[in-house]
């Protein structure tokens, strides 16, 4: 393992800060703590997954075992972006793990959900934390995660990637 990020290679996140080799690389514990603090998703949910960084700040979750480092194009699913002031979960991670969230989940009405999935920003009242939220909609009596929204100043911005947006 080198002491720098390599864009064409996956490196397993170190378990703790004591094992960190690459400066600023998050640790597994920091990722678990972030999901628990931000969304109430407890660490056991991720027990079967390892976390990997490819390039700088792109964190992937992988269910399985491979040696580190590994030079391949994809490994599991992108889960988190950690560079910048605020960490951002990916749509894939929210749709996979968001059913375990207990906080910072914003439930939308049918019309609001349609607008959100189409990529529209919308003014909404929300008395919770500002920042990245798990946006949900009730489907068959259960709250299902639709994606990631960014809530600031009374507005919910849809973070659904352009290629995944849909008119319903």
From TrEMBL:
The keyword Methyltransferase applies. GO terms for biological process: methylation. Residues 3-76 form the DUF7122 domain. Signal peptide: none annotated. Keywords: Methyltransferase, Transferase. Pfam families: DUF7122. GO terms for molecular function: methyltransferase activity. This is RNA-binding PUA-like domain of methyltransferase RsmF.
């Amino acid at each position: 393992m080198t002491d720098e990020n390599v864009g064409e290679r996956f490196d397993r996140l170190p378990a703790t800060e004591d094992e960190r080799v690459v400066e600023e690389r998050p640790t597994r514990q920091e990722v678990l703590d972030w999901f628990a603090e931000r969304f109430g998703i407890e660490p056991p949910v991720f027990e079967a997954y390892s976390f990997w960084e490819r390039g700088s700040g792109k964190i992937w979750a992988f269910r399985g075992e491979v040696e580190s480092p590994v030079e391949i194009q994809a490994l599991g699913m992108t889960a988190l972006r950690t560079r910048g002031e605020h960490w951002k979960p990916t749509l894939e991670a929210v749709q996979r793990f968001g059913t375990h969230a207990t906080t910072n989940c914003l439930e939308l009405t049918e019309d609001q959900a349609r607008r959100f999935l189409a990529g529209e920003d919308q003014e909404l009242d929300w008395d919770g934390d500002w920042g990245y939220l798990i946006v949900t909609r009730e489907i068959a009596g259960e709250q299902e995660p639709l994606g990631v929204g960014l809530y600031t100043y009374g507005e919910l911005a849809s973070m659904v990637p352009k290629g995944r947006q849909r008119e319903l």
